[in-house]
Amino acid sequence: MAHNVFVDTSGLYSFLVKKDERHEHASAIVQKSLKEGHRFVTTDYVIDETATLLKARDYFHGVASLFEGVFASRACTMEWMDQEYFEKTKALFLKYNDHQWSFTDCFSFICMRAKGITAALTHDIHFKEAGFDPLLA
Question: Which end of the chain has less neighbouring CB within 10 Å, N or C?
């Protein structure tokens, strides 16, 4: 049975930017996951972070492809922040103030738990701290 893989900012960046040191690894994971019938899940906050990161690192030319690729993909679904998600994310963020988790990380963790996702295309160690499997770590 196929399962979902969460896509985080660092994993999406590595997948999109061919000069990134983890690009080949990220691409291999995506291809293997697609072949095995896995689906991808991300959030509007991750897309926001990724677009901003691409622009900050002079890869703005890739932003349109990011938007088009995610929204046209049948293999990737988007979770959108709403009031219920915001309240849950805020509670997690405040509860774990001793961790360096960003608000976006907390939203990702909330979504992953809600969807039963255990693995993430990321090299962000915060995912491991939260009990998930960072596939690029």
Answer: N
